[in-house]
Design goal:
Blueprint: E1 14-17, E2 24-29, E3 32-34, E4 39-42, E5 49-51, E6 63-67, E7 71-73, E8 78-83, E9 87-89, H1 103-116, E10 118-120
Parallel strand pairs: 9-10
Antiparallel strand pairs: 1-9, 2-8, 3-7, 4-5, 4-6, 6-8
């Protein structure tokens, strides 16, 4: 029998979002493979989003939102939808890039998400 593995879905981390897609913004996601719930930062020079990394200095050290659905774009940039305001999330379902190595980094991300209007419950 074939075994299938389901990746993360919004149900793993998104508890509430505002009506009429108010919490959602279409964005350009920098080349890479990202799963639902990935915390993203915005590269200042290109305005594209990539993994949030508190150690970077290109703008992506500031949280811009959370990726709603997976983006598989290893070779080129892709379109994605980001939750960037008025939402409630579960911290346990979030995904972080390789630059996030400590619980302090995760705490910083939650603080920055709160500033966007995204609450951790």
């Amino acid at each position: 029998m074939t075994t299938y593995t389901e990746g993360k879905t919004p149900g793993d981390w998104l508890i509430y979002e505002a009506k009429s897609n108010y919490s959602r913004t279409p964005e350009t996601i920098s080349a890479g493979d990202y799963e639902s719930g990935t915390v993203l930062g915005r590269i200042t020079a290109t305005e594209k989003l990539k993994d949030w990394d508190p150690t970077e200095t290109d703008g992506s050290e500031t949280v811009a939102g959370i990726l709603l659905n997976p983006v598989k774009a290893a070779a080129a940039d892709a379109k994605g939808v980001v939750i960037d305001t008025h939402a409630q999330i579960s911290r346990l379902g979030l995904s972080f890039g390789a630059g996030v190595t400590t619980s302090g980094h995760r705490d910083t991300a939650i603080t920055q998400l709160r500033a966007l209007g995204i609450k951790n419950v």
